[in-house]
Write a structure and sequence with these properties.
Layout lengths: L5 E4 L9 H15 L5 H4 L7 H12 L5 H19 L11 H10 L3 E5 L5 H8 L7 E3 L12 H10 L6 E5 L2 H9 L3 E5 L10 E3 L7 H5 L3
Parallel strand pairs: 1-2, 1-4, 2-3, 4-5, 5-6
Catalytic activity: beta-D-glucose 1-phosphate = beta-D-glucose 6-phosphate
Protein name: Beta-phosphoglucomutase
Pfam families: Hydrolase (PF00702)
Length: 217
């Protein structure tokens, strides 16, 4: 069995909770279009790209738009969302995330980000975490959305490690499926019911240690 050499992290729901900001921005967009967008509806947007999210939102509202109009709305939503993330502070890092990243770095484990977010760099800079990542693969560098493993395979390639030597940390079912499809181990963060396919499911990175990581070997 191959030794674990690298960890790849999703961003939203794993290192930071930007879901609330996404939800407010999507809810506002739906309201402007004349329908209600609930927290339950928002669950369907977890881990998927901006345009796919917009298509789900429009489907909920029973609205059909041209591609041009869709792009305009997606941009509007992103502008709203960015007003929130540009005010983010390092104290918004989820419990235990920074400590675990620092522990991995101290133990010589390579670290990459694998996120669908096109705002990942902005968020990492606001949280003062950029220097902990050796590679950042975000929505600007991939064409395929999870559960396609592209984002994680590119992360492994950027770190110069074999996919089988990587462990992915994910909070979305599509992300867990992407990790497994890429021949990587996966730690799910959240509900065992939703993330049951992962090799290990925890509540958050505060429950993770280097020793626990090595047990996945």
């Amino acid at each position: 069995m191959r030794q674990i050499k690298a960890c790849l992290f999703d961003l939203d729901g794993v290192i930071v909770d930007t879901a609330k900001y996404h939800y407010i921005a999507w809810k506002e967009l739906a309201s402007n279009l004349g329908f209600e967008f609930t927290e339950e509806d928002n669950e369907r947007l977890k881990g998927v790209s901006r345009m796919t999210s917009l298509n789900i939102l429009l489907e909920i509202g029973g609205i059909t738009l041209s591609d041009e109009e869709k792009h305009r709305l997606a941009e509007k939503k992103n502008e709203n969302y960015r007003t929130f993330i540009l005010k983010m502070q390092p104290d918004e890092i989820l419990d235990g995330a920074k400590e675990f990243l620092q522990e991995l770095k101290a133990k010589g484990i390579k670290i990459a980000l694998g996120s669908a977010s096109k705002n990942a760099m902005t968020i990492l800079e606001r949280l003062e975490l950029t220097e902990l990542f050796e590679a950042i693969i975000d929505g600007t560098k991939v064409t395929e959305a999870k559960p396609n493993p592209e984002v994680f395979l590119k992360g492994a390639e950027a770190l110069n490690v074999d996919p089988s030597e990587c462990v992915v940390f994910e909070d979305a079912e599509a992300g867990v499926e992407a990790a497994l499809a890429g021949n990587m181990k996966c730690v799910g963060i959240g509900s065992p019911v939703v993330l049951g396919k992962a090799n290990l499911v925890i509540d958050g990175l505060h429950q993770m240690t280097y020793e626990k990581l090595m047990e996945l070997n």
